[in-house]
Amino acid sequence: MGQKIRVLNMKEVKQILSMSDVLGLVERAFKERGLKHVQMPPKSYLFSQKFGGDLRVMPAYLKELDEIGVKLVSVYPGNPSKYGLPTVLATIVLFDPETGAPISYMDGTCITAMRTAAASGVAVKYLARKDARVLGMIGAGYQSVFQLDAINKVMKIESVKIFDLIEKEAENLAVLARKKFGLNARVVTTAEDAVRSSDVLVTVTPTRTPVVKREWVTEGMHINAVGADAPGKEELEAGILKRARIVIDDWEQASHSGEINVPVSKGMITKASIYAEIGEIVAGAKPGRVSADEITMFDTTGLAIQDIITAWRVYEMAEEKGIGREFEPLYCEP
Ligand SMILES: NC(=O)c1ccc[n+]([C@@H]2O[C@H](COP(=O)([O-])OP(=O)(O)OC[C@H]3O[C@@H](n4cnc5c(N)ncnc54)[C@H](O)[C@@H]3O)[C@@H](O)[C@H]2O)c1
Predict the structure, then answer these.
(1) Nearest ligand 1 atom, CA 233
(2) Rounded to whole angstroms, what are the CA distances from 245 to 64, 75, 127?
(3) Which of 112, 199, 209, 255 is deepest in the core (most CB within 10 A)?
(4) 35 CA distance to ligand 1 centroid (A)?
(5) End-to-end CA distance of the chain, in Å?
(6) What is the pLDDT of residues 225-252, one digit of tens each?
(7) Domain at 129-301, CATH homologous superfamily
């Protein structure tokens, strides 16, 4: 009968993955994309106005690696306060590339957070100044600690400033930053404080009203705009994009739902305003940062290839170490 299916829960996935691994995997996924070795239709969305969330379907095939799968992910910003659940919840299904048979169902919540953070890490590696030392963070929710973990692995952080609308969240993240990563982290009480004189800025909120003002951003800064991943979401004033070298992960996704989606819909930004896809930079087709005083901005929407390459590593390691459970699927007899 069919191949066995390995099932992994969030704890098991987390036990297998390290951020260093995910940084390498995401960089490889971007490179494969830059070399045009992947199939990845843009993610498709279902919106629930009644409950204030959305469900996305994200398929990908990395052809050189023979890795194929789909992520199903929902984003419900009311979850943490209403139900104590994460805003972002995901499941990943992997398939045997030869037969199309499903071979693994695994939780994708942790993978989503880790690969999102790893994308930020890769962007910092290629786009931030080498002497960047001060990190500003706006948004201290579920994703933020993963962001810190990844960026800490690619940047010599001397200090971190954290701002969140909910001060307690910012305090919790500062405590984690100190305890887990030994970082010099402090809470600031305005978004402006988090931005001014930071070398690298990460925005990771679900806001629809830009929280970063043009005049706070100075030459030489690199910004990872992470939070905007659905139509109407926007964290940076459009004037910042006008001043910055803009790098995206994918035009279809970014113009539909990334940081640039609102300015694109208003005609303030066009495809011609974009410098590169991150994959082109990682694959060596275009240089990353070219001068110390330019402002760079990475608009990351999250690519299915990041999830699928990471999930395959989890699957292979789980097979090797016997982690998770296996079951034999029973296919319907004709
Ligand atoms: N780009 C990607 O690949 C990707 C991946 C995962 C999540 N996301 C997005 O990142 C965002 C954050 O996700 P999360 O799971 O951390 O959510 P979360 O709900 O756990 O945390 C969001 C935090 O942002 C804070 N916040 C909201 N508005 C703010 C504002 N104007 N100023 C300062 N702080 C503000 C909230 O108080 C909260 O602490 C969401 O929009 C999510 O959809 C993007």
Answers:
(1) 41
(2) 31, 29, 10
(3) 112
(4) 31
(5) 14
(6) 999 988 999 999 999 999 999 999 999 9
(7) NAD(P)-binding Rossmann-like Domain (3.40.50.720)
